[in-house]
Structures are given as structure tokens and as C-alpha cells.
């Protein structure tokens, strides 16, 4: 059985300011760095063999901190990036016009092929995230990878493994530096293939961040 840990990056400047990042980027806050250290402390005895991160700056930094604690290297995979939120990237959630808010809702409410102008659909996100996860199946036997990615991207992955539509990710709260785990297994009892072991665990964090919409 292959166990894959899924970690959302630490809190960033724009998460704290309620600004939309998508494939744009902002640095980790001091709290975000501390959260990454706490993930490292939690997983350092888990036998992690590979840390694989989205190539955006916030996931790179989080991954480096975790990989240091685990004593393994980091590689980057652009398929693990956050949803491309097109023209709404870098905007404050509170500053959206009614039309812009409607674009945002089009995506999160699951309109088929809905996308923010110049952005990506949830279907496209779901396909590239599943391909990024499936790449773990090609690692040498006995590997135990940890992927560092993003809120919507990881929520979409977990939702679709459960057989839910990609936009069901809005029913999951994956806070900064939460840990989820999915396993690939051939059990006769559970469904063969990917199954969800845990989602959104923050028990290792002494100062969990509120997510953007809760602030
Ligand atoms: O892009 C963003 O603004 C948020 C949305 O949830 O994602 P993340 O902070 O996880 O990259």
C-alpha cells in the first residue's frame, strides 16, 4: 500500500490579507513559517522519502522546511499548483464587484466548465492534480511521498477521490499546513485504488490560521 501525505502550504501574507493568490504568489508570514516547522516536527518520524511541491514560492518554502526535518530532498511539479483564478488573482476578496463575485461563484458552485475569465476550470484542475498524484505510483517500491500544494487544489483532489464533483472541495476546510493522507491500495473490503485516510488534520499546529473566508 502506498501512503501519500498531502500538506497545504503555511499561511501567507495574502491569505492573512484575504487576497486571492491562485498562481500568483506571496511569501509565508512568520506564522506560516512556524506552521511548516510544526509539520516537519510531526512527520519527521513518518519515513517520508520524497517531498514533492507545487513550484510556486509559498509551497517551495513550506516544502524546504519540511524536507529539512525529514532529511530528504524536494522536487517541484507544476501540476500541483493552485487553481488559476485568472483576472481575479491578486484582488482582495472584499473588493470584488457583483459581476466578479459571480465569476468566483461560478467556479466554486460547480457550473460545468465554469471559469473565471483567463482562468482554469475545476475539471482541468482536477485532471492535472490527479496526474500529479498518480505520478507517485511510479516511485520505487517502499516510497512514502509528501506533496505540498494548495487549498482548492488539494480539496479538489480529496473530493474527487471520494467520488464527489471537484467543486465539493468547498465543503472541506483544508487550513494552512493541514495534513491529509490518501492511500493507494487493493483491499477487497475498501474500493480498490485511492482512498482517503484523513483530511485537514491540524492537531500538530499550536496556532492554526483561520482560512481566508473566515477572517
Ligand atoms: O490561492 C489562494 O488564494 C488560496 C485559495 O484557497 O489558495 P492557497 O492559499 O492554498 O494557495
Automatic annotation (TrEMBL):
Alphabetical list of Pfam families matching this protein: His_Phos_1 (PF00300)
Active site as annotated: 9, 82
Record keywords: Glycolysis, Isomerase
Residues the record lists as binding substrate: 8-15, 21-22, 58, 60, 82-85, 104-105, 151-152
Enzyme class: isomerase
Family designation: Belongs to the phosphoglycerate mutase family. GpmB subfamily.
PANTHER family: BROAD-SPECIFICITY PHOSPHATASE YOR283W-RELATED, HISTIDINE PHOSPHATASE FAMILY PROTEIN-RELATED
Catalyzed reactions: (2R)-2-phosphoglycerate = (2R)-3-phosphoglycerate
Protein name in UniProt: Probable phosphoglycerate mutase GpmB
One of the GO BP terms on file: glycolytic process
Pathway: Carbohydrate degradation; glycolysis; pyruvate from D-glyceraldehyde 3-phosphate: step 3/5
GO cellular component: cytoplasm
EC assignment: 5.4.2.-
Amino acid at each position: 500500500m502506498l501512503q501519500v501525505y498531502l500538506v497545504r502550504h503555511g499561511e501567507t501574507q495574502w491569505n492573512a490579507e484575504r487576497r486571492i493568490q491562485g498562481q500568483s504568489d506571496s511569501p509565508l508570514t512568520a506564522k506560516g513559517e512556524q506552521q511548516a516547522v510544526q509539520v516537519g516536527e510531526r512527520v519527521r518520524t513518518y519515513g517520508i522519502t520524497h517531498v514533492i511541491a507545487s513550484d510556486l514560492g509559498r509551497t517551495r518554502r513550506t516544502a524546504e522546511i519540511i524536507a529539512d526535518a525529514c532529511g530528504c530532498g524536494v522536487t517541484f511539479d507544476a501540476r500541483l499548483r493552485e487553481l488559476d483564478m485568472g483576472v481575479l488573482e491578486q484582488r482582495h476578496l472584499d473588493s470584488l464587484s457583483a459581476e466578479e463575485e459571480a465569476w468566483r461563484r461560478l467556479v466554486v458552485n460547480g457550473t460545468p466548465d465554469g471559469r473565471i475569465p483567463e482562468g482554469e476550470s475545476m475539471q482541468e484542475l482536477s485532471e492535472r492534480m490527479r496526474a500529479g498524484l498518480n505520478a507517485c505510483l511510479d516511485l520505487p517500491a517502499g516510497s512514502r511521498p509528501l506533496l505540498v500544494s494548495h487549498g482548492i487544489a488539494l480539496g479538489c483532489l480529496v473530493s474527487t477521490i471520494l467520488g464527489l464533483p471537484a467543486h465539493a472541495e468547498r465543503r472541506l476546510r483544508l487550513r494552512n499546513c493541514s495534513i491529509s493522507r490518501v492511500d493507494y491500495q487493493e483491499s477487497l473490503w475498501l474500493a480498490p485504488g485511492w482512498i482517503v485516510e484523513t483530511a485537514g488534520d491540524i492537531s500538530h499546529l499550536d496556532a492554526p490560521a483561520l482560512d481566508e473566508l473566515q477572517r
